[in-house]
Each structure stands twice: as structure tokens, then as C-alpha cells.
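Hello,

I think I submitted the magnesium ion job twice by accident. Can you confirm which output corresponds to this input? Input:
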Amino acid sequence: MNALARIFATPQGIVFLVAVLFAVVLGLLNPAFFTPSTLIDLARNGLVTGIFAMGVMMVLASGGIDVSHTAIGAFAMYATMKIVLGIDLDLPIIAYFVIAAAIGAGLGLVNGLLIGGLGLNTLIVTLGTLSFFRGALLTFLGTTYITSVPREVINFSRTILIRIENAVGQMVSLPASFLVLVAVTIALAIIMNFTLFGRKVYAIGGSEEAAQRIGIRIKRVKVLIYVIAGAIAGLAGMTHVTLSRMANPFDLVGMELNVIAAVVLGGARITGGHGTVLGTLLGVFVITMINTTLLMAGVPSYWQKFVIGCLIIVGTGLPIVFDRLAKHRQRMARPLEA
Amino acid sequence: MNALARIFATPQGIVFLVAVLFAVVLGLLNPAFFTPSTLIDLARNGLVTGIFAMGVMMVLASGGIDVSHTAIGAFAMYATMKIVLGIDLDLPIIAYFVIAAAIGAGLGLVNGLLIGGLGLNTLIVTLGTLSFFRGALLTFLGTTYITSVPREVINFSRTILIRIENAVGQMVSLPASFLVLVAVTIALAIIMNFTLFGRKVYAIGGSEEAAQRIGIRIKRVKVLIYVIAGAIAGLAGMTHVTLSRMANPFDLVGMELNVIAAVVLGGARITGGHGTVLGTLLGVFVITMINTTLLMAGVPSYWQKFVIGCLIIVGTGLPIVFDRLAKHRQRMARPLEA
Amino acid sequence: HAQDAKHSIVTVVKLSGIAWFNRMEDGVNEYAAETGHDATQVGPASADAALQVQMIEDLIAKKVDAITVVPNSPEALEPVLGKALDAGIKVIGHEASSLQNITYDVEAFDNAAYGRHLMEALAQAMGGEGEYAVFVGHLTAKTHNEWVDAAIEYQKEKYPNMTLVTDKLESNEQQQTAYQKTKELLRTYPNLRGIQGSAGEDVVGAALAVEEAGLDGKVKIVGTSLVSVAGPYLETGAIEMISFWDPAKAGIAMNKVASMAIAGEEITDGMDLGVEGYNAIKLDGKVLYGQAWVDVTTDNMSEYDF
Amino acid sequence: MNDEASGSTPILQMRDIRKAYGPVRVLEDVNLELSTGEVRCLAGENGSGKSTLIKILSGVVSADAGQVSLNGRQLGNDPMGAITAGLSVIYQDFSLFPNLSVWENIGFLTSVTSADVLHKRSARRRLAIDTLKRMQVEIDPDTPVELLPVASKQLVAIARALANRARIIVMDEPTTALTRSEVAHLLEIVGALKKEGVSFLFVSHKIEEVFAVCDTVTVLRDGSVVVEGPIGEFDTERLVEAMTGRSVDSQRLPREEGAVQRPFLAASGLGRRGNFVDVDLELRPGEIVSVVGLLGSGRTELAQTLFGYMKPDAGRIEIDGETVTFKSQHDAIERGIAYVPEDRLTEGLFLNQSIRDNITVSSLEKSTHFGIVSAASLLQRARDAVKNLRIKTPDVTPAVATLSGGNQQRVVLARWMEIDPRLLILNGPTVGVDVGSKREIHELLVSLSRSGTAVMVVTDDIAEAIALSDRILVMVRGRITAGFDAATVDEDTLYNEVIREDRT
Ligand SMILES: Nc1ncnc2c1ncn2[C@@H]1O[C@H](COP(=O)(O)OP(=O)(O)OP(=O)(O)O)[C@@H](O)[C@H]1O
Ligand SMILES: Nc1ncnc2c1ncn2[C@@H]1O[C@H](COP(=O)(O)OP(=O)(O)OP(=O)(O)O)[C@@H](O)[C@H]1O
Ligand SMILES: [Mg+2]
Ligand SMILES: [Mg+2]
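Support: Only one job matched these inputs. Its output is below.
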């Protein structure tokens, strides 16, 4: 009872409960829902959002916000393809991801220097760079689809981790790109929990002033945060190419609010200091599930927006209401003696 | 010299200077630029952005942020057309605007209650309602274009305030919808500068705690802020219908960051307490000018994003750099004698 | 003399930067180079009618001689095109035979005939039976709807053993959307055997989803696209056949018609525009039809580099 | 005294430290030395510059002039440098991370100084548990700090400084929220560490602690060192005198005594859980009542309750003999009550907005006709107020942030005088105000009171209470324990009453 109440009192808890409820209802409506193939489908669909979300979670944990990540991802993926096609060398697939991450990190550095170095507001800076990076991509790199992606990318796209047959005998497959999400998640979990840098991120998100006072070099940490977030966005962009087998410079941008919604549903607070890798995965999972399952249930896709909107509001609102009630009860329980 | 330096030290100042520079360069490239017809064109193109920007400015001045305004505008415009076509009455055009504003105000009330009443974070709430309102619109109201707009709307669309001949003998005209922007601007200027409520908005944006201490009923004021912002968004939506002569439920959403960029360029601060009606008009003007003139100059439209991104970063970054330099110089100018 | 004057003709396309309209731009440029007229092409960054309206507003202000336009949504453009005509600008449409406010509309072919042609190819691939679905770029795109409507009608008449499983699907001319919707389709209709695409991205998105589901070869895909877009899937056989009309030729034809209109020359039925595929045009009111479609399969894909 | 300290080279030297915030000089040529194993008390009134000196020492704030050297090495303007040189600070505001657990807060400083790359969970957690055990306090090391009560937060802040094996520990009022036994433990630890050669700079308003633990004293007044020496040279009286000074401003202001009037506000049996209890209070027009007490004694909450900002749990408030319940401070303002908060920087002023707006913001109604505010009238009123209160500014349009502390305080006063309050409650009315301005503000308040306004002042400045008030109430741990006639009470008596902790 008490444990349940405590779960209810966290945003993730509520989000999770709603998600479970959702799944149960869908399972009742459509028994095919509770099959491994659904899970694989979810994993495939939430892949790019998930990778983006990791970087955004770190930024939110540090008390910032990043809306430019999709532009970084699009820029990095397109630039990578241009570079690789330009030099015309046979590179192993890992090199593609390294290049994309490096380009992403470079763009992240721009954010980092403006935010950490100049001390500008993170929302303004990333709003600016969202427009700036995207403009630079379309203006200087090009606007045409790159469909003739190199053989390595195509091969990687066709590499399948798991392939199972679903209820109707079709193949549902988890592409190797899923490993990118796994790698980013593990790496970020290690960074955030087992390195001092990660703890400094939370510390800055908790209180910038206090962090400065105990000798944390805030500027340096902030710059690094945005560089890492940029690199992760670059990986997300490259992953997108391996999924769609083409580089479309118009892709990705536009999903930034969706990614932020997933991260917030996963328990990261927009005011900083909170956010976990696992929670973020949960948030991405829930958003992807809602998108995917509503489609499966034949509900028009516009419902998704409606449901996700509700979830964000309820998921962040209810805990506050519970918290207020608890605080009030706590004070009333105290004796009148001062 | 000093005055110039002071202008340079404000974001609006820099934005304005860049805009003037821009105009001069364009004027040199294309003498047709410096004609009244260009101005009219700008006024026409910046109309909807300008109306939205007014509501967003008020929200920013109060220390909040509103990304849901476009969803409110789209909802209000589509709902208004549905209602009017449903009741099949001949209403004067003003009634359309009243209905749209009322619907917008109702949706704004949702934001207001969540933000003012529950005390939730404004970005989260409006992210949620952006998704929620849009989903509700597409799910419950419809997804088809309404092209058979009533006669009154068409007539209003055809009403022209100014029609002048441009250099080559073509007509450039300012539609009557421009009056909506004028009315909203004047009304908001009065509200923000000459009513108690307006001063309270700035007070809350300056310091919520201090505002509370002097007896301002923060919750009430906040609710009202979002209601008014909603109403303005509704008007923007209806204005959009009168310009495009059709109600497309997919329109408007997606321009929210553009509107916020215009407001920020106009000097409103994302941290609250600042923002003027005039500055906002300037910001809208600059963004519209960049969009329009780059097109006129035959520059690919992606440049716009690039330039606007630069402008946001420079406009907010340079004043901080100048400020720091000034502070440093000031400290250095002091005699060592304490 | 009107013929000697330099005409400024601007072609406004649905979306700039994609292969299709880049090819059209090649044609526009070729026309400009050959005739010396000031012919250029512009297009919005996203396939949005409002952006096209804005561009045309600007062109009116710039007082060009003619605007040729490939509209995202003809209805949405009517007012502004009307304004252009009022301003004395010639307006030539393409893929928009329903437009009212135009001087002429140039169509590569009769849309119904093209739709029937694609359906015939799909039916052949499917062996004349099974479930199929159709994509359009936008539900408001007149041309796509005409192709698809004619195709469906043709199927009902000629191939009664084939069934259309659901309403026309909208891809927003996005590969990602086509991909997602195809996945959805396959899940809902496991017996689906054919997909007909309209926008260039439709077949590519569909092919990716079909291939991922391990159904390539089983689900036949036919539609409008370009070799540069659909090439990899044509090669593997995931896409059965694509058809297109050469946008470069269409671009030249539009500009040609625009020049003639500016010069006050009359267009007549059966006329030869001097452009391949438009050698004997059919005139129906203000609409001109050519016979300019091209079919591509694995065998002849190497002949096209756009 | 401290034999091993005398003669040895100082571990810490601060030379000719100077600091000004804008036109306000906070520190002037301050010198301070600390030897190995020495415990030095830094004493001084509120706003005398103690915290600023400490922030300069720790590198958080840069001095305008002067040097700080630790172990003979000069320190730059960098917190990291000071910390690695062996300095730990317990800040007045704790500076903890609310989102992190207790053990992580305690261990963080050590992690930063040892330049860890990996997060050594178990080692840091053990360190935290050991430190807490050494302090003999029981706090669950895994709770997030934001869930702790204030006293525990303070203990965590202390533990963080102790855990870092620092050579110098600076404590800026470390005991404000602690109970006697917790203070005793802390003082024991200080004694033990001192034997290990750790030096302390200790700031406290609690005189008995100072005498219990310190070897030497440095007294700051208005930013300058007025006296320093071994603790043996001082007794309570001399120390208090050194801190408060005997300059003009501590003289009681002359005033005419009027006839006693009916109370405007009367509180009886007022109580609020965890803050104060059984408060009886009468505030009359023409009288200034001071409530003095230490931080955490509940004075602020009492003042805020009278202002309707907090709700009482017991007792009642009467205004003009009529029982009232305030739903919010709005109701209190409508009843004619004004409240000047203690921290005007965060609670009272809109720093980035103009002087005019700040003065008129709470009385816009006066210039409003049919819902429209008259800008001309606002400007006129603001100008008049600036003239009446002698606010030093060329115009009423600059932002308040450009004014000096004393003038900012006057802006706050001006704002409340604009609403013509019947009761003015001021919390620390002259904190951060220079000596001259302090006097002027006192004069203003006295004349305001003589013109028929009831005035209540919350302060921990004893001299101010005596100089300003007619009646002084002492609050200890949430109870009013004594009342004095300001004309007859002397500072020592008052101080002894204030620092008396548990009174039965
Ligand atoms: N950031 C700042 N800007 C302007 N003035 C400041 C700032 N910080 C401190 N001051 C002023 O400097 C003076 C000294 O402040 P400080 O905090 O050092 O006092 P203190 O002796 O620690 O007082 P207390 O006993 O209340 O802690 C005060 O007048 C204060 O208002
Ligand atoms: N927002 C808060 N949350 C938790 N505890 C608080 C809060 N505000 C005050 N307290 C605590 O309530 C108690 C009373 O504080 P209060 O500010 O009334 O003291 P004070 O007597 O005014 O002290 P000062 O000398 O600083 O003015 C203290 O223990 C304080 O730390
Ligand atoms: Mg202090
Ligand atoms: Mg206090």
C-alpha cells in the first residue's frame, strides 16, 4: 500500500502505471499485442528517439535544456554521408558512427561554448542553434536525398539481431542499429553513475552556486555536457540513416519536442538535478508504445498526440498534488509546541 | 557615440542594427526594396506571426513560456469554422473573431489552471497542451480542409485597406486582417502599460516571490495571463483563415519556435520581467523581413534559418559580452584607493 | 518585337531539394541556356501550400512575366494565382489540371491513362489477384488522386479478383511516413500482395518496410519514382517497376508554353512543342496533355541517371 | 592560551583585503592571520563583512585588492585552488545539493579535491558514515538532502567540511539551527581536530560558543577590523561592545512620548506548528515594538503570520478589536498592514525594474481610474517619494539594482509608505545599510510612528532595537520570553536574554 503510494507519487510511477494499464487494455482488445514481436517492433520504432533522449536527459539533469539535438543529428548524418561519399574509401561501419559522433560533438561544442563559456540561457542558445545548424545544413551541405548510401551502411542495415515471425507469419526484426542504443545507454549509465563527471552534472543541476563553491569548474563541465550530448545526437542521426537507408536532410528536425516529452515522462525534471538512464528508457518506451499500439489498435494517429499530451500533464501534475497533500499532512501531524 | 554604444548593448539594439544593415544591403542590390510596397508586403507576411507574438510576449514577460499557442490558434480557427458552418447563420465577421477568441481563451484557461493553479512548470504544461490541443483538434474536430468558408470571411479577405502600385505597375495590397494585429497590439500595449494587471504581469516576471509579498494574487494573475494569451492565439488563428481563405487543421502548428524567436529578438527575456509591445513588433518585423527579403533576393529559403539562428545567438550573446567588458573596464577605472 | 524580349519566368515547385525537382531544375536551366530567357526555379523547404503562397506573393511583387507552378494544394493556391493573373502575370500549372486561375496547365499525360497504366503493371505483377493498397503524397494532391482513382476503377473493371484493402494512404511525400504506414498496413492486412505509390518517396518507404518484414518479392510494389531514389530497391527487386515522366522535359514544356503565352501565341490541339513526349499535345480547355511516361525496371534502370 | 600556535608561522594570511559592491564598501584593508591549530573567532554585526571575507578567502568572490596566502602560497580567485590547499568552508546558506543523497553531499568535496575520475561510491559512502558517526549524529546517509529538516542540513554541511581532511575549516554561523547537544558535539570535534593541527575560523553570534571554543578573536565593524587579540583579553561585555561600537547611531533616538492608544493589532495565544507558540502581542499606533532573537527563533514566521503570508495553527489575531483571519497577505494589505521582508534582494525588490515601478507597484490603485493606470501620476508620486526619503538617484527611471544597499532599503520603505499602512512590519530593516543611512532610516521610522502608524521591527541587532524601539520583546525558540522598556534596558541584559537557549 505504502510502496504503491510512493510509486504513485513519482512522475515515472504514474507514467508507468498508465503505460501498464494501456498495455493491458490493448492486450485485451488484441491478443496479438502480448507477443515478443510487439516488443521488437517497439524497440525498432523507438530507436532514434531513444538515442536522442539519452543526450537530452543529461542536459536536463544539468539544469539545461536542448532543443537543437535534432538539428545536430540531421547535420551529422548528412555531413557524414557527404564526407564518406566524397573520399570514396571503404570504411568499416564503425567509422561512420565515429565520424557522425565527432561532427555532433563539434556542433555540441558550439552550444557548450555559448552556454558554459558565455553563460547564455540554454533555451535561447539551443533555439538559436536549432535554426542555425539546420540552416547551415540545408544551405551549405545540400538539400537532396542521398539514396546511394555506401554498401557498408546497407549491409549494416540488413544485419539483423533478432528475427522472429509474428502471429500472421511476417518477419519482425531487430536491426543491428539497436546496438547503438544499447551502447549509448550503457555508456551514459556509466558516465552518469560511476564517473565523477556524471555526479558533477547532477550537482550542477542541483545547485550551480553550491557546485561552484566546492570547486567544480562549472564552465568546463557544461561545455563537456553539450559536447557529449552533441556526439550522442550525431550517433542518433547516423542510426537514422542505417534504418532508413538514405540520408534525407529534412528528416529528424521536428521531433525535438517529442524527445523532450519522452525524457520528462521518464522522470527528468526541467528544473535540473534529476533524470536517470532507466527512467529515460521508460519514457521513450511509453511514448513509442502509445504511438505504435494506437496504430495497431486502428486508432487514428492523431489520438497519439492527445494521449501523450494528457500523459505529460498528468505525469507531472499528479505528483505535485500528492506532494502538497503529503506536506500538509506532515505539518499537521507535528505538535503545536514550537 | 555613447547613445550608440548603449543601443548596441541591448539585444533589440543589435537586432535592429543588423536589420537595418540587412535592409541597406538589400536596397543596394535591389532598388525596388525601398518602396512602400515592400513595407506592405512585410506587413502582410508578418501578420499571423505578429499576433501570436503578442500573446507569447505577455507570457514571457510574466516569466513563463508558451509553446502551445499555435495549437490553440489552429484549434480555435478550425472549431470556429465548424461551429459557424454548423449553425448556418449569417454572422458579421466580427462574430467570427469573437468566437475564435473565446475558444482560444477557453484553451488558455486549461494552461492557466495547470500553471497558475497547480504551479506546474510552464514549459512542461505547454508542451503537453501543444500535443493535447492538437491531438484533440485532429481527433475530434476533423482532419479535412474546410475550403467552403462562409461568404463573410471571403468578403473580409477581399477587403483591402491599402492598395498601391509598385514600381512595375502591379498592385500590392494590405488586407483588412491587418486591423486585427493593430487592435491586438494597441490593446496589449494598453494592458501592459496602463493597467494594474499589466504591471502585475511584469512584477511576477521580475520576482514571483516579491510579487507575492506585495499582495499580488499570483495564481489569479497567471490564470488570466494564459487566458488572454489563448484569446490572442485564437485571433491569430482566425486571421490565418481570412488570409488563406480556407481552414487547414494542419496549419500553424510548427511555427511556435519561430514566434518565440521573434519575441526574444524583440527583447523579451526568457527569464521573465522584460518585453515590450514595440520590441515584439520589431522582432516580428526583422524575422519577416529576413524571410521575405532573402526570398526576394533569390537566396534559397534555408538561409533564413541560418540567418535567424545567428541573429538569436548574436542578439542575446553580444549584449552579455559588452556588459562584461563594460563591468571590467569600470572596475579597472576605479582608483586602487578603496 | 515580343519574341526578342527576355522573359522572366519562375517555376515554383512543391519542394526544393528533392531529386525530382532537381531534375526539373535541370530542364529549366537548359531552357534558360537555350533561349536566353531568365528562367529560374524556386521551392519551399517543406511541402507546404502556405509557403508556396508566400513565394508566389513575392514573385508577384517582383513582377515576373510568368509563373509556372507545381502546387502542393491547388485550392490553396487559387487566390494567389488569381492575384497573379490580375497583375498580368501568365500562370502555367503542372500536375494541377483542376486549377482555375491559370493561363494553361501542362500535363505530361492524361492522368487517368497513366493511372490505368500503373494498375496494369501492378496487376500483371500480382497475377491479377490479391489485396493491394495505394499511396498518394497528399490527399489534396489532385494529380495523385486522379491516377489512383482511375487505377482503382480500372482494377474493378478488369481485375475483379483484386481488392483494395483500405482508403488512399497519405505519405506526405516522406519516406519515413510511407515506411510507417506500410508497416501498419502489413500488420493489419497480412495478406497484402501489392502497393501502388504516387509520390516519389512512396515506393521507397514501402519497399523498406516490406523488405524488413521479409516479404520482398511477395508484396509487389509499383509506382511513380525516380531511379536516383528507388534505384537500390529496383536492383534487389523489392520494387517491381517505377514509372515517371521526365521532369526536365516537363520543365522545358512549361517554360515553353509560358513563353508562348507571354508572346501572345496561341496553343492549338495537336501542336508540337518541340519537346520529347510533347510532340502532339492534346488540348482540353486550358489543359495540355503530352504522352510522356517512362517505365523502368531492373533491366533498363542504368539508362537513367536522375 | 594556545602555545603551539604562538610564534609558528601563520598557515593563513589575509592582507589588506578590500572589497566594494558598487558604491558600497564592504571590506576595507582587512588583515587576518591564522596559525596551525588556532581557533579564531570572526565577530561582527550583521553586514559587517564576515561572510564576504570568507567568500574571498575561499575564492568564490574576488577581492578588489589584497592578498590571501595559504601555507605561504598565494591563492588566486578560484575555489578549487583554496580547496586543494586544504580549506573547507561551511557556508551560511549551507550550499548543499538538494537532489543528491547525504553521503554523496558529504563525500563530494573529497572526490573533487582528489581529482577522481571514477565515482568511488563505497569509499565515499563509508567516509560519510564515518564522519557522521564521529559527529555522533544519526542521519540516514541515503536520503536526498532536500528531504532533510534544516538542522540536519546544517549537520551535513558541517560533515562535508570535516570529511575533507582540511587543514583550515571556516565555519560561517554553523550552529544556527542546532540544538545544545549537537553544538556540544561539534565543539568537541573542533577541540579534537585542533589537537591534530587543524585551524578554524569561526563565525557565530552566540557569545558562549565563542568563549567555549576560540583562542583568538577578530572583530569586524562596518568592514574594518576594530580589535583583535587572544580571547583571554575579552569578556562578554567587551566583545559585545567591540562588535556593536559606541558610535552615534547606537544612541537611543529622542522622541516624544504620546498617550497610550488602543492597539491596532492584538494577537493572543498565537501559534504555528514548528515555528512559534503562545505569542501574545499588542501593536499600537505611535509605538515601535522590536522583536529580537536569534536565527531560527521564529521571529520571521511570526511576522509573516501577522502579515497573512502564513496561517497560524492556534490563537487569534484581532484588528481594531475585531477578530480576523487572513486568507492571504492580500487580506492583510487591505487591512492596512505592510511587510518589509528581511532579504530585500530576493523577496522585496524587483531589482531589474525601475525605481518608479518599485515604489508604486503596491499602490497602483492610487493612480488608477477606471482600470487605467495614469503614468504621469505614478511618476509624480515616485519623484515625491524619492525627495521625501532622500533616495540618492538622479532620476526614478534607473533600475533599483543600480542603487546602494541603503538606498534600496529606502525604496522598499517608500513603497510601503505609499500605501499609507496602519501597521508597518519590518524584518531586519537596516541589514546591509551603512551607518549613516541606518540612522536616517531609524529617524524616518520614528517619525512615521509618531504620525500614528504602528511599527513592528524584527531584528537581531540589539543596538538597533534599543535605539529605535519603545518596547522590546525577546523571542527564544518560538516563545516570547521577556519584554523590556527600550528606554531603560541596557544591551548586556538584552543580549543575555537573547542568547539564553532553553528557558523553562
Ligand atoms: N553580491 C552582493 N552585492 C552587493 N552587496 C553585497 C553582496 N554581498 C554582500 N553584500 C553586502 O556586503 C555587506 C557585507 O555582507 P556580509 O554577508 O559579508 O555580512 P556578514 O558580516 O556576513 O553578515 P551576517 O552576520 O548577517 O552574516 C552587506 O552590506 C551586504 O549587503
Ligand atoms: N522554507 C523553509 N523551509 C524549511 N525551513 C525553514 C524555511 N524557512 C525557514 N525555515 C526554518 O524555520 C526556522 C525559523 O526561521 P526564521 O527565518 O523565522 O528565523 P529568524 O528568527 O527570523 O532568524 P534570523 O535571525 O535569520 O532572521 C529556522 O529553523 C529556519 O531554518
Ligand atoms: Mg554572513
Ligand atoms: Mg529571519
